[in-house]
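2024-03-11 09:14:02 INFO queue: dequeued item F-box domain-containing protein, len=337
2024-03-11 09:14:02 INFO validating residues
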Amino acid sequence: MEARRKKEMDSEEKPQEARFSLFPDEVLERILSFVNSRNDRSAVSLVCKDWYTAERWSRTHIFIGNCYSVSPEIVARRFPNIRSFTIKGKPRFSDFNLVPPNWGADIHPWLVAFASAYPFLEELRLKRMSVSDESLDFLARSFPGFKALSLVTCDGFSTKGLGSIASGCRNLTELDIQESVIDDLGGSWLNRFPESFTSLEVLNFANLNSEVNFDALERLVARCKSLKVLKVNRNVTLEQLRRLLVRAPQLIELGTGSFSQDQALPADAQLETAFGNCKNLNTLSGFWVVSSLYLPVLYPACANLSFLNLSYAPLQSTELAMLLPHCPLLRRLWVRI
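2024-03-11 09:14:37 INFO prediction written
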């Protein structure tokens, strides 16, 4: 009791800042590792010097809302253990062609800085950044444990750069390309995935225009047993989609290709069965070209849908009225206006 009383008296005599540091730094860092909110972590770093230091060493993800607000060198000095970055570049009005060409927001200087400071980098999510094929090749060569790449409304790269990612990132779990301006040189980039590659969980190439090498895509989907999200482009036919669903009934999110045929599909019952076997499917999108004749094949998959994205589907209200009664759990519906 005397020792405990003395400790309490000593703590009262210490400055207010020191009272927050009565347990080991390792414990504090472990606790802070469970704090995910950016705002909460920023608030924690302002408590005292010890908490500032603990937050500095325990942070593994950084969100940068403006790539010009801070330099990569400053980030590297401040946070030594970052494994995941989210970086935004050009302002939002660039989506409406209100930013001149070569405006900036180049990711390459960031990658060069990351290569020396964070060779263990695992995840990079970019929005409205300029990304070259050379940058993607550098990324694939510089970070051996790299796992996830998301490029949203980015520009400056081609499918050649995607091939570098496919061949060089042996632990890749996510490749997500959304609404980006891509120099589409063909679908052969899918061939670059090694035959031993099996780790992919998310694959989205919906906004690519060229035909893909379907045999390579089918083999990739069959190998990756943990694949949960698959979004293909409009060149994938209904029959090809059926074959993919047979290979990956574990999908949670699916983006379809063209949902119509020039001729009647003789195996539409098989496609309906393939959709019915996707018991975990909760998000459905795509439908770049859609014919209402083929909507009934979706009915077995509609039972568990919570999100249905028909933004690109030229459906009439009467056609929607036939589909929606089969979606009792639907929470979000995006339609074309």
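2024-03-11 09:14:37 INFO annotate: The chain has twelve helices and 13 strands.
2024-03-11 09:14:38 INFO item closed
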